[in-house]
Amino acid sequence: MSEPKAPIPAPGDTYKGWLFKWTNYIKGYQRRWFVLSNGLLSYYRTQAEMGHTCRGTINLATANIAVEDSCNFVISNGGTQTYHLKASSEVERQRWITALELAKAKAFRMQAESDDSGDESSPPAAGQGGGSRNSEVQSTLRTLGSKVEDLSTCNDLIAKHGSALQRSLSELEGVRLEGQTSEKIRQVTERATLFRITSNAMINACRDFLSLAQAHSKRWQKALQAEREQRVRLEETLEQLAKQHNHLERAFRGATVLPPSQSNPAIDNKGSAPVKGDASDEDDENEFFDACEDVQEFITVPADPKYHRSGSNVSGISSEMGMDDGTASLDEQSVASNPESPQSQEVVPMRKRRTRIPDKPNYSLNLWSIMKNCIGKELSKIPMPVNFNEPLSMLQRLSEDLEYYELLDRAAKCHNSLEQMCYVAAFTVSSYSTTVHRTGKPFNPLLGETFELDRAQESGYRSLCEQVSHHPPAAAHHAISERGWTLRQEIALASKFRGKYLSIMPLGSIHCIFEKSNNHYSWKKVTTTVHNIIVGKLWIDQSGEIDIVNHRTGDRCHLKFAPYSYFSRDVARKVTGVVTDKEGKAHYVLSGTWDEKMEYSRVMQSSRGGENGAEGRQKTVYQTLKAKELWKKTPLPDGAENMYYFSTLALTLNEPEEGVAPTDSRRRPDQRLMEQGRWEEANAEKQRLEEKQRTVRREREREANRSASPSEEGKEPADGAEEVEIASEPSETNYKTDMDETSSDLSLSSK
User: Which of 295, 559, 644, 716 could covalently link to 546 via disulfide, CB atoms 3.0 to 4.6 Å apart?
Assistant: First the structure.
């Protein structure tokens, strides 16, 4: 039976042939059919098995190839797989070694390119043509790079075998005996054969590289010429736009200025000249383009140009929402500048709030040494040192929801409930913007602790928070504004530590009521997750869905906070939403991020028939007008990274004030000591307050047990009673006693 002659290995070709593989000490070496393809070496008992049964495969990308003697060599991938192989001759062995080394180099490059392409995933290009050209060029460059690596490998092999051939020729010159001459001639012949095999592989690789370069040379020249022509066209277009801009600017400066009596938009009739800003509004209405797309739920496309006819109706929306025409701001200025108004008669000096707090000390502490024993437990029951806190209580963090109270002020001026819903949704999203860098844990409030935020003079609102339950922790928050809105929320936090991350689930609801329209909105918060608890830098993500409901009109807004994904091409911290009426008809599309800004686009038409979603459902396609900004985050103050990343409002929350209640969070001694950088004293004071609260709670439980069962009056509570919370509401006497105890603990004078 004649064996098929193995072909000369060439880069990228499939190499096949018979080899002897070591099986065990009983059978020894057994003849097997080996196939080398795509960086994988597989073997079969016979050639007929190639279609259905593979006896083993080893990946050469991570394998080590070692030569033992003239015919034997070993392939191993680190201990899990090891092939002891033997060729029929030294020439055959060298053919396999050459093919294996080429395949290993190519497999290693392919694996590295695969990793790089996963790390450097970029968003799609602006057009389909540009993206396809870019991918084609990248593919060609990778192919050329692969060929160059093949040439380099073949060059190394040629140098190696050429040196061996030279040594054999040198040895042949020094031969004297007749028997040694024939042996040396045979070795020189084998060396020459190996050199010829490697040279042929080098020639084949050079031929492939040359043909590929010639095939793509003309295409690259055409592409380069096209890019040059496009650059010239862009330069000409830019020059024309500059000339037009200059002409329009001169025309605007030379325009006739209206007299002051006609410049007030409040007294203009329908036919009067529009005020400043209306021209830009008309231009905006003539521009139709894509709003931000939510891949999961709906698709937005440019609205049809036929909606130009309804430009006057659309511009009315902007005036009602108070974003573009500035009518509301003009009214406020006229009231402020009127000398007969009551506000101007009594000028109260504005209090200057602090803009800095002491820098955060750099104390090192191993978080995992504390958290490893707390996996699966409720976070509020874990005794944590102040090293992981920030000098604010949870009540003050709740008050930070009013950071962008101006959104509710604007919403109160809206006459349309759907437009008002857009501002309420933006306010809902803005409350998370202060958490993006805030990885510190706020202080758990003591039972009965309060926090009052009086900003009536600066911002027109007053806020009050109180801790109404300790286990589980729950707080009540109420804020009222002189500008026509009331906000209240009752939040109970449930938190779980899962080892790698920490999840915080708010369980309460938030209500907002506007006096003028009597619209009543309600919604719930999403889940907050703190990642990299064990290893890496801590970072926070918000994920989940929010449904905002107008209980008077039935309008709804569905917001979706997309969780962060390494493989997603969407912008990080993305938020999308749709505002619908009670019949389910969409009127506005919201898009943005919870840490930067939110925009809204008016929906002109909607239809079903987009790409199928993950569950086979058709997506809704919305035709929208140009997006306009609803809310944008205010930059953090200078040096915020050294001040716990506090915002301007957060820096003032713990500022000492006169006249606050004894139970106010500003009077907490442990929190005040931490803010001043005295963390060791803060830890001791925090432990004292928590132990005092546990003692008061145990006394309250004993009193409740004695009231419930007089016969068991003298019994002590069972083990673990410290962690049991009474289900019933505390009596008025017990609540006042606890408040008195807490007040004495919170008072700074108690020190």
Answer: 559
